[in-house]
Write a structure and sequence with these properties.
about 50 residues, about 45% helix, mainly alpha
């Protein structure tokens, strides 16, 4: 059962990371999603 959960997490991560990278701001040191997506300022203390 644990192997199924682990493989699911790995697959989800592989699918999610390219999407996250596509939404990142190139000039930023931190991967911040596009301003089109609601992101709490407390998590990313960078002014939009």
């Amino acid at each position: 059962m644990g192997k199924i959960i682990l493989s699911t997490i790995l697959i989800s991560t592989q699918l999610f990371l390219p999407t996250l990278q596509a939404l990142t701001i190139p000039d930023s040191r931190f991967p911040i999603p596009d301003s089109r997506f609601p992101v709490p300022c407390s998590l990313f203390p960078i002014p939009f």
